[in-house]
Amino acid sequence: MKRVWVSLVIALSATMFMMWQNGAFAEKAKDAAPAAAKAEQKAETVSASTMPTISIDKTSLSNGGTIAVNGTAPAGKPVYLEVWSDDKVRVSRFDADVDKTTGKRPYILYMTEQMPAYYKIFMPKDKKETLDGIKKEGKNWSVSKTLKDLGADIAYSAPAKAKVDRYQATLMGSIIGSRGDLLPQMDEKENRQRSMQLIKVRFRSPDKVLGADVEVDPAGTYRAVINIREGLAPGKYSIVAVVDKGVQSQPVSFENKIVFPVMYLSNAGTSLNIVWPFILCLGISIFGVLMGAGGGFILNPILVSLWPLPHTVVAGTVMPTVLFSQASGIYNYSKIKFISWKLGTAIGLAMLVGGFIGPKLTELITLDQFKFVFGWILLILASLMFWQTTPGYISKNKKEQAILKEFKKKAEETTKAKEK
């Protein structure tokens, strides 16, 4: 019996001890929950205090203008403003440079359809001297190195999100303008790197991508007056303030509006006043048809030089515009019987084949290469035509004299027929 009572006492003691333990642990858990909540709330408070704020003085522009930006940031932190347009354009880059490691040419075409039509990072004014030094590098500047040297790589975000496709071309394929085979999608890091190369293709100079306009006070407040130049894409633009990687403000937005006669060229990502191109092309078409051409050989380099248009868009745009002058020219030349249809058909077949190759080939060359080749072609043709107008050449070339006399005779006959 004694053993039974001992067993009961031990059992009850053990039960009470376990209940006490359970109560204690429960109490600890109960106390731990608010502690965790407090820690989380504290983390959120600290996080909120490190987040920069941003505001702008206007939400609408008319074909560009200035916007005053101000806000607060953690004291002692540099502030970068990332600005981009919601409108997207296509950009491509053909990599045929010799690889330093393998010694071979990769022949890879990089292309994206999602490049912001406008993109710029504004940084603290104390970076201006470094930025000026980068500008002196000319065409040799590197976007990735520049962003790193200026500390602006923490703000580079919008273009990095653009999906970049790559195509494996061949030497022969690149000659005839073939894109090649689509390669697997790149990882996030390489996609970001390639997007920086496409940024340079799109905007060309550091001035278009970077500016040192942000004033930052020691207390953390900042201000900047940013200029949105004329001739940019219409629509929504976004601005964020960035102080560290992943630490940025909520975006603010404004709208850029344009009205006729300013028109937006969506495939070029550029707006321009069409009055001046109209007047220019009127004179060029008169001279071009006079020379037996549509005027494209004159219009092409002028459009590239006077307006910020991609050479690919210029080449494609000039083709259908020349059609108008060519059509009216064909009609009028046929009336005075100055057209050799046999020769024209033979030449036309060759141009038909070239018309398939040319458009693809423009994707694989840079603007500098385009200007270089086109410039030399014009110089050679100009020299040849000038030489053929010299008295010595004309006196020796009897066939050309006979052709000129025949043209003159037909023109006189046509004039007399109209008078009757």
Describe this structure in words.
The protein is α+β, with helices and mostly antiparallel strands and 420 residues long. The protein has two domains: 55-257, Immunoglobulin-like, CATH 2.60.40.1930; 274-388, no CATH class. It is 51% helix and 21% strand. The chain has 13 helices and 16 strands. The chain has helices at residues 2-50, 128-135, 143-150, 171-175, 188-203, 206-209, 275-290, 296-306, 311-335, 341-361, 367-388, 391-396, 398-419; strands spanning 55-56, 60-62, 65-72, 80-85, 88-95, 108-116, 119-124, 165-168, 181-182, 210-216, 221-228, 235-244, 247-248, 252-257, 262-265, 270-273. The strands form three sheets. Strands 1, 2, 3, 4, 7, 10, 11, 12, 13 and 14 form a ten-stranded mixed β-sheet that branches. A four-stranded antiparallel β-sheet has the order 5-6-8-9, with helices on one face. Strand 12 (235-244) and strand 13 (247-248) form a beta hairpin. Helix 7 packs antiparallel against helix 8, helix 7 (275-290) packs across helix 9 and helix 8 packs antiparallel against helix 9. The longest helix is centred in the first third of the chain and has 49 residues, at 2-50.
The CATH superfamily of the largest domain turns out to be Macroglobulin (MG2) domain
Largest sheet: 10 strands, mixed
**Structural class given helices, strands, pairing?**
alpha+beta
* CATH level 3 topology of the largest domain: Immunoglobulin-like
Query: Whole-number average pLDDT?
Result: 81
According to DSSP, the number of beta strands is: 16
Query: Mind telling me the CATH class of the largest domain?
Result: Mainly Beta
Proportion of strand residues: 15-25%
* Uncertain stretches of 5 or more adjacent residues: 1-6, 17-33, 35-46
Name of the CATH architecture of the largest domain: Sandwich
Principal-axes shape call: elongated
The SSE order reads HEEEEEEEHHEHEHHEEEEEEEHHHHHHH
Q: What number of domains?
A: 2
